[in-house]
Amino acid sequence: MIGELLDSRYKIIQALAAGGFGHTYIAEDTRIPGNPKCIVKHLKPASSDPNLLPTARRLFLSEAETLARLGNHDQIPRLLAYFEANQEFYLVQELIVGHTLREELTPGQKWHESDVISLLEGLLPVLRFIHQQDVIHRDIKPDNIIKREHDGKLVLIDFGAVKQLRSDLTTTSSQASVTVSIGTPGYMATEQSQGKPRPNSDIYALGMICIQALTGLPPEQIREDLNTGELLWQDDVSASRGLVGVLTKMVRYHFKDRYQTAAEVLHGLEQLAHPPTVPIAVAATTPQY
Question: Of 92, 189, 247, 287, which has the fewest Cβ atoms less than 10 A away?
């Protein structure tokens, strides 16, 4: 694949990742002066059955349109192009220059509370935006958050919709009801692991990243209550009761007990900074004559 020219335009120069859903490459756009770099995602349908190609094409176009809509947000990579070649599908996205959040999460090192709040304030508006577009990311984890080099903003990459495309094609090709969970263990809420993600499954994943940052522990090392499924991490951190309360609600075991929207979490954070004032009752005094 290296050196290949796709769509008579995108020259593949480096392989980035390979998975069950396809391959990801860095390419040069040969039609733009300076040959700027971009990301190319190569999606292979799970089945070679030609009868399924129309379904595959329909699903691909639907997901591409979704990614194009999401790219209107400054903290989501823009979709530059999408095309089909030899009955396989390609997405071309903006290359985000920076480093992943994974590089800032050193095991055993705990973040300061203010850094965790900054992380939440940086990503919750992005979640609010994608959920307003009726999209669930489904794979929020440190590797899928890039701190952009030129402005330090956090960018959310690698939407699970691309992986879902292949899962949908697998289900279609088998002509059976198949439950496929998209996500990463440790950051995946229970309902998502059962193939039933909700918007606040993304809130759970972001909460897990914050708890990982505060405790210095990877998700698999965080204890849980065997009776309730609730996570037990609160005694392992030095943080205000307010922030601990917000994060605890973000990662409750049952989705009904969590914050339902990113806007609700943002409101919870605002209350930490500006707690509601309680009027002080002043005892009436009897005038002395």
Answer: 287
